Amino acid sequence: MDESLFIRVLGIKSPVLKVLDFLMDNECFDYSKTDIAEGANLSRATLFKAWPKLEALDLITATRSVGQAKMYRLNKKNPIVKKLMELDDTISEYFALKYCDSRACSCNDISDVVGPGQDLIKEIIKYESDSPSDERDRNEQLLLANE
Does 2 lie in the same domain as 53? Predict the structure, then answer.
């Protein structure tokens, strides 16, 4: 598995950061320790060594149990996690803009950076750059683009 942009930029391959990076990239879900170790590209032994630090700093939180397995997710209420998520977003934004500038692209080309098949993104950009007209028609066009 390739390193994330977050890990590459920081240049730190700490198990704690790898776990946080995995959970930041997958913040909507909860995971077992086995899933976290696999997703963070760590051995279970390494994860279990780093786990006490994650718990002591309240960076992760238990969400539920599935059978014998406890499920965990990022503690987004923790101020350290908030700052790390902000940093991750800033790094991503910086490189997206840098990539866009190096290709001398305009705002209409942002879907190339985001990914192919992003018609909704193109429609939003078009919607935002159009001169004001009948709001109802514009909203309806945007909704149709999402289908």
Answer: yes
Give long-range contacts, CB 8 A cutoff, 24+ apart: 58-62. 59/16, 59/20, 60/19, 60/23
Q: With a threshold of 0.70, does the pTM exceed it?
A: no
State the amino acid at position 92 in one-letter form: S
Report the DSSP beta bridge partners of residue 56.
none
Q: Are 29 and 68 part of one and the same domain?
A: yes
State which amino acid sits at residue 26: N
Radius of gyration of the chain (CA): 20
Can you give the residue range of the structural domain that contains 35?
1-104
Q: With CA atoms as reference, report the closest residue to 54 among 46, 10, 130, 139.
A: 46
CATH number at residue 95: 1.10.10.10
pLDDT digits (tens, 9 = 90+) for 17-49: 999 999 999 999 999 999 999 999 999 999 999
Percent of the chain topping pLDDT 90:
51
Residues sharing a CB contact under 8 Å with residue 76, sequence separation 6 or more, in sequence order: 27, 82, 85
Contacts of 43 (CB under 8 A, 6+ apart): 37
